[in-house]
Amino acid sequence: MAHLGGSESKREQFRRYLEKTGVLDGLTNVLVALYEETEKPNNALDFVKHHLSGVEVGDTEALRLELTELQQKYSALMEENKELKSRLCQYEPANEDGGAE
Protein backbone atom coordinates (compact mmCIF):
# COMPACT_ATOMS: atom_id res chain seq x y z
CA MET A 1 0.00 0.00 0.00
CA ALA A 2 2.88 2.37 0.67
CA HIS A 3 3.94 2.01 -2.96
CA LEU A 4 0.49 3.09 -4.11
CA GLY A 5 0.69 6.21 -1.96
CA GLY A 6 4.08 7.13 -3.40
CA SER A 7 2.75 6.68 -6.90
CA GLU A 8 -0.21 8.95 -6.16
CA SER A 9 2.16 11.54 -4.76
CA LYS A 10 4.23 11.51 -7.96
CA ARG A 11 1.08 11.80 -10.03
CA GLU A 12 -0.09 14.73 -7.96
CA GLN A 13 3.30 16.43 -8.27
CA PHE A 14 3.23 15.92 -12.03
CA ARG A 15 -0.33 17.26 -12.25
CA ARG A 16 0.69 20.37 -10.29
CA TYR A 17 3.71 20.80 -12.60
CA LEU A 18 1.48 20.63 -15.69
CA GLU A 19 -0.91 23.09 -14.11
CA LYS A 20 1.85 25.50 -13.06
CA THR A 21 3.49 25.52 -16.51
CA GLY A 22 0.22 26.13 -18.35
CA VAL A 23 0.16 22.80 -20.15
CA LEU A 24 -3.25 21.84 -18.78
CA ASP A 25 -4.77 25.17 -19.82
CA GLY A 26 -3.26 24.90 -23.29
CA LEU A 27 -4.51 21.37 -23.82
CA THR A 28 -7.91 22.24 -22.43
CA ASN A 29 -8.23 25.21 -24.79
CA VAL A 30 -7.28 23.11 -27.81
CA LEU A 31 -9.68 20.34 -26.86
CA VAL A 32 -12.48 22.86 -26.31
CA ALA A 33 -11.75 24.37 -29.75
CA LEU A 34 -11.92 20.89 -31.27
CA TYR A 35 -15.16 20.19 -29.45
CA GLU A 36 -16.68 23.45 -30.68
CA GLU A 37 -15.75 22.80 -34.34
CA THR A 38 -18.97 22.35 -36.29
CA GLU A 39 -17.21 20.22 -38.90
CA LYS A 40 -14.84 17.90 -37.13
CA PRO A 41 -11.46 17.58 -38.88
CA ASN A 42 -10.50 14.24 -40.42
CA ASN A 43 -7.26 14.24 -38.48
CA ALA A 44 -7.77 15.39 -34.90
CA LEU A 45 -4.08 15.03 -34.10
CA ASP A 46 -3.14 17.51 -36.86
CA PHE A 47 -5.79 19.89 -35.48
CA VAL A 48 -4.22 19.67 -32.02
CA LYS A 49 -0.67 20.10 -33.36
CA HIS A 50 -1.72 23.08 -35.44
CA HIS A 51 -3.47 24.80 -32.54
CA LEU A 52 -0.68 24.09 -30.07
CA SER A 53 2.00 25.49 -32.38
CA GLY A 54 0.24 28.86 -32.61
CA VAL A 55 1.42 29.31 -36.21
CA GLU A 56 -1.10 29.53 -39.00
CA VAL A 57 -0.45 27.63 -42.23
CA GLY A 58 -0.35 30.89 -44.23
CA ASP A 59 2.11 32.32 -41.72
CA THR A 60 4.41 29.36 -42.25
CA GLU A 61 4.54 29.91 -46.00
CA ALA A 62 5.10 33.63 -45.55
CA LEU A 63 7.91 32.94 -43.10
CA ARG A 64 9.54 30.47 -45.51
CA LEU A 65 9.41 33.02 -48.31
CA GLU A 66 10.85 35.72 -46.05
CA LEU A 67 13.61 33.34 -44.94
CA THR A 68 14.57 32.60 -48.55
CA GLU A 69 14.64 36.30 -49.40
CA LEU A 70 16.74 37.12 -46.34
CA GLN A 71 19.18 34.31 -47.12
CA GLN A 72 19.62 35.70 -50.64
CA LYS A 73 20.17 39.22 -49.28
CA TYR A 74 22.66 37.84 -46.77
CA SER A 75 24.63 36.07 -49.50
CA ALA A 76 24.65 39.21 -51.66
CA LEU A 77 25.82 41.34 -48.73
CA MET A 78 28.56 38.85 -47.85
CA GLU A 79 29.81 38.97 -51.44
CA GLU A 80 29.71 42.77 -51.44
CA ASN A 81 31.54 42.83 -48.11
CA LYS A 82 34.25 40.52 -49.46
CA GLU A 83 34.64 42.68 -52.58
CA LEU A 84 34.82 45.91 -50.56
CA LYS A 85 37.42 44.43 -48.20
CA SER A 86 39.48 43.38 -51.18
CA ARG A 87 39.27 46.88 -52.70
CA LEU A 88 40.13 48.45 -49.35
CA CYS A 89 43.24 46.30 -49.03
CA GLN A 90 44.46 47.69 -52.38
CA TYR A 91 44.34 51.26 -51.04
CA GLU A 92 45.25 50.64 -47.40
CA PRO A 93 47.76 47.84 -47.02
CA ALA A 94 47.80 46.36 -43.53
CA ASN A 95 50.56 47.54 -41.18
CA GLU A 96 53.22 44.90 -40.85
CA ASP A 97 53.51 45.39 -37.08
CA GLY A 98 49.72 45.11 -36.67
CA GLY A 99 49.46 48.36 -34.72
CA ALA A 100 47.28 51.33 -35.50
CA GLU A 101 48.79 54.65 -36.57
TrEMBL record:
What does the record list as coiled-coil region(s)? 60-87
Q: Which InterPro entries match?
A: AMY1
Keywords assigned by UniProt, alphabetized: Coiled coil, Nucleus
Q: Where in the cell is it found?
A: Nucleus
List GO terms (cellular component aspect).
nucleus
The superkingdom of the source organism is Eukaryota
Q: Which family does it belong to?
A: Belongs to the AMY1 family.
What is the official name of this protein in its record? Answer: c-Myc-binding protein
Question: Could you tell me which species this protein originates from?
Answer: Coilia grayii
